[in-house]
Amino acid sequence: MVEITRQQLTEDPHPIHAELRAESPVAWVEALGGWVVLSRELAVEVMRDAATFTVDHPGFTTAQVVGPSMLSLDGPEHRHHRDPFVNFFRLAGLRRRFADYLADTAAARVTELRSRGFAELRMGLAGPFAVDVVAELLGMIDVDPLELLTLYRDIVGAVTDLSAGNAMPSSGPAAVAELRSHVARAAAGTGMLSAVAETLTGDEVLSNAAVMLFGGIETNEGLNAAALWYLLTEPGLLSIALENRDVLASLVEEALRLEPAAARIDRFATRDVDIGGASVAKDDLVIISLAAANRDPASFAAPDEFRLDRRGDAHVAFALGPHVCIGQHLARMETIALLDAVLSGLPEIRLDSRRSVGPTGLVFRKPAAVAVTWQP
Ligand code: HEM
User: Fold this and answer.
1) What is the DSSP string of 330-348?
2) DSSP 3-state assignment of 281?
3) By three-state DSSP, how is residue 117 classified?
4) Fewer CB within 10 Å, N side or C side of the chain?
5) Angle, vertex CA 10, rays to CA 4 and CA 16, nearest 5
6) Which protein residues touch ligand 1 with a CB less than 6 Å away?
7) d(CA 131, CA 153)
8) Of the candidates 185, 229, 222, 230, the residue with the CA atom closest to the CA atom of residue 206
9) CA 345 to ligand 1 centroid distance, Å
10) What does DSSP assign to residue 123?
């Protein structure tokens, strides 16, 4: 096979994954400096085996910026960080706590746009709504969402700089210090952070709150935007959804399968190990391509097609195993509420295809621009 570039993998990884997978379920990709797991079956195996494929490794830089958290630990330490949060993310409780909030906030965001007659919905709706939801989740409702977004961007920027081998930029610790004061105020209140503060130290509450920002902003912006993208680009889907909101749940699952907002998750091998015919050495980077697993023809018939009536294997957009996304129910509720609000508030919406740009991104994938018009 010819050399694969990061650019190609950013723009359209799917045909490359299919070609690689046809040769072998695990491939070394020089441009990524790691092994890429391409089959759903092996992806599940690797995600479930945290003893062999760990996140607890100096190759990860997130912990250097925000401190150790559930995202950067394995084994008993991981459970120590994650367990106190688990109850808050159960579906029944989330429905009680968030259903009205999500419906009202999404409707308000759509109403703000209504009189304009046009909008770019990724930056104008998908992103701001994702920030609203995380702020509400963390009990940071007195913080300006724009400030929260700036803190988030500074922390992500610091992680990215460290990963590229650069020094820590001063904006990283400054943003973490600012977040610390917001977290301390929320932990003194009555919400989720105050409850977990009974078990976790101040530093542990902070690092996990930071991880919720990572977990809930970029990814849910991506999921919101991808779901809107399919709603507006799949032939006939908009009319079906306007008639019957019950299809929104399946629509969101197909958006998650075809363009998982976190397209890959990374692990490091703790020992020499053979997987899928590949000889992985201790400390090698092992990239689980959720995007590739979700289009594995062994699990999904006509894997590149959007189908509302899929049965059988589930997609792995939220990962599996000990690090399975703790926010997955909330993520789905958020996106369904947003689609519902768009259908109710802007029923004559149309994609402006000249100004729209489809899914792109190497790690976090999302449509770059979902430009739309409607009759105000
Ligand atoms: C309100 C929204 C969300 C919140 C609060 C959230 C939070 C989190 C947290 C805290 C983790 C770390 C769990 C652990 O390591 O034990 C996690 C993992 C993960 N989340 Fe989410 N998440 C949200 C939405 C999403 C969305 C929309 C996606 C993708 C479509 C996503 C994909 C993932 C994946 C793939 C992992 C596994 C990471 C890994 O194993 O390396 N999440 N999430």
Assistant:
1) HHHHHHHHHHHHHHHH-TT
2) coil
3) coil
4) N
5) 45
6) 55, 70-71, 82, 133, 211-212, 215-216, 219-220, 223, 256, 260-262, 265, 317-319, 323, 325-327, 330-331
7) 12
8) 185
9) 29
10) I
Please name the residue whose Cα sits nearest to atom 34 of ligand 1.
318
Name, in order, each residue with C-beta under 8 angstroms of 99's C-beta and a sequence gap of 6 or more. Answer: 333, 337
Paired tokens of 115 = 């009189």
What amino acid occupies position 308? L
Residues in the chain: 376
Question: Tokens standing for 76?
Answer: 């008993």
If residue 213 lies in a helix (H) or strand (E), which one and from where to where? helix 202-216
Residue type, 216: G
118 touches 372 (CB < 8 A): yes
Q: Which atom of ligand 1 is nearest to 82's Cα? A: 16
Walking along the chain (376 residues) 10 residues at a time, the average pLDDT comes out as 86 97 97 97 98 94 90 97 97 97 98 96 96 94 86 88 86 92 91 94 95 91 98 98 98 98 96 97 97 98 97 95 98 98 97 97 94 94
366 found inside a domain: yes
Q: Which amino acid would we find at residue 146? A: L
Range of 210's domain?
A: 6-373
Q: Classify residue 1: in a domain, yes or no.
A: no
Q: Classify residue 278: in a domain, yes or no.
A: yes
pLDDT at 161: 87
pLDDT for residue 146: 85
What b/e sequence results for 90-118 when a residue is b if at least 16 CB atoms lie within 10 Å of its CB, and e otherwise? eeeebeebbeebbbebbbebbeebeeeee
Domain of 347, CATH number, reads: 1.10.630.10
Q: How many domains does the chain have?
A: 1
Q: Name which of 283, 300, 278, 280 is nearest 291 in CA terms.
A: 300
Cβ neighbors of 189 (< 8 A, separation 6 or more) are: 139
Query: Which two tokens mark 182?
Result: 């917001």
Which of 367, 50, 72 is CA-nearest to residue 221? 367
Is 358 within a domain? yes
Threshold 0.85, pTM exceeds = yes
